Amino acid sequence: MIAITKLFDTDIPHVQKIRLNKEQVEFAGTVEEFLTDASDTTHLHVIKNGDDIIGYFKLDLAYANKYDFCPNHAVGIRAFVIDKQHQGNGYGTRAVEVLFSYVASAYPDYSEIVLTVNCRNTAAYACYKKAGFEDTNEKYLGSPAGPNYIMKGRCH
Ligand SMILES: CC(C)(COP(=O)(O)OP(=O)(O)OC[C@H]1O[C@@H](n2cnc3c(N)ncnc32)[C@H](O)[C@@H]1OP(=O)(O)O)[C@@H](O)C(=O)NCCC(=O)NCCS
């Protein structure tokens, strides 16, 4: 069963074992970057399959302050990752589905989730779409890695 929890200190050694394919690092950053980015508004989370940590992501509560395309009632997701050994099994899609209800119950002040995904990142775009995100048909052009789709999904 796929579940989402906040990152605890005891999770860190498990997160440090997560690997991405080389060409995926430009889309999601490194594990070390993930682990050092926590703040009052950036909340680190892990994705579990049973007791095993198979991925991670950040919830950015200040996304609306940074990006004009993000409404005030929306939270951002960044660095959404499934370990390379576990990719392609439907876990990413399931984790995003779980995320909509997780945000609704753990962050009731936010009713929508917003993200950007690089236009070359076909796997992530397909995963988000399949799990219920909609392409807004607007592009974010401020990333050094190239144009990004802007996607939104309603929490439920
Ligand atoms: C994006 C990511 C989280 C998806 O996780 P996943 O568990 O592999 O996704 P799923 O198995 O649920 O696959 C969902 C859909 O993505 C597509 N997909 C998955 N792997 C793919 C690949 N290697 N190439 C192309 N499409 C792929 C498929 O359409 C798949 O649906 P289908 O199986 O019904 O055909 C994972 O690939 C990943 O960690 N990528 C690197 C980090 C990244 O780019 N994150 C996004 C930052 S915005």
Please characterize this protein's 3D structure.
The protein has 156 residues and is α+β, with helices and mostly antiparallel strands. It has a domain of 108 residues: Gcn5-related N-acetyltransferase (GNAT) (Aminopeptidase). It has 6 helices and 7 strands. It has a 7-stranded mixed beta sheet with strand order 1-2-3-4-5-7-6, with helices on one face. A hairpin with a 2-residue loop joins strand 2 and strand 3. The radius of gyration is 14 Å and the shape is globular. The chain binds coenzyme A. The site of coenzyme A has 22 residues, from helix 2, strand 4, helix 5 and helix 6.
Quick overview of this protein structure:
The chain is α+β, with helices and mostly antiparallel strands and about 160 residues long.
Query: What is the highest CATH level, the class of one domain?
Result: Alpha Beta
Distance between the termini: 19 Å
Which structural category fits the helices and strands? alpha+beta
CATH architecture of one domain: 3-Layer(aba) Sandwich
- The CATH superfamily of one domain is identified as Gcn5-related N-acetyltransferase (GNAT)
Give average pLDDT, whole number.
98
Total strand count, please? 7
Envelope shape: globular
Give the biggest beta sheet. Answer: 7 strands, mixed
Spatial ordering of strands, largest sheet: 1-2-3-4-5-7-6
* SSE arrangement, N to C: EHHHEEHEHEHEE
CA-atom Rg in angstroms: 14 Å
Helix content: 25-40%
Q: The CATH topology of one domain, please? A: Aminopeptidase
